[in-house]
């Protein structure tokens, strides 16, 4: 089973364009962060907002790439609204038909009831 999982991960790494973009973003981001931080003293690099934002983007891209590579692709979103609408319409028709049937089967109010 491990070989099947390994094959699936390798196939995703080779075929998935979104994964390629995330890996490329992460790699270029690491390069940019290194070049920016290399010329700064450590005290200044820690407080640099642009550097911090770029590190956060690199981390996000890396996590997205890892999740995409090692996990199954996300299933399409479920259409629960349509199912709920169909069930609601069906319920309304059943209630309407039951009331109509009960109204037609009831004896008239002035007629004597059999004893």
Comma- or semicolon-separated keywords:
5 helices, elongated, 115 residues, 2 domains, 0% strand, mainly alpha
Structure description:
- The protein is built from 5 helices and no strands.
- The protein is mainly alpha-helical.
- The chain folds into 2 domains: 2-70; 76-106.
- The longest helix has 26 residues, at 80-105.
- Taking pLDDT < 50 over at least 5 consecutive residues as the criterion, the unreliable ranges are none
* Count of alpha and pi helical runs: 5
Structural class: mainly alpha
Radius of gyration: 32 Å
Query: Per the principal axes of the C-alpha atoms, what is the gross shape?
Result: elongated
Helical proportion? over 70%
Overall number of domains: 2
What is the percentage of strand-forming residues? under 5%
Query: Could you give the distance between the termini?
Result: 77 Å
Q: Biggest β-sheet, characterized?
A: none
Query: What is the number of E strands?
Result: 0
H-E string: HHHHH
Mean pLDDT value:
82
List the helices and strands and how they pair.
Blueprint: H1 2-15, H2 17-38, H3 42-47, H4 49-70, H5 80-105
Helix pairs in contact: 2-4
At a glance:
With 115 residues, this protein is mostly helical. It has five helices and no strands.
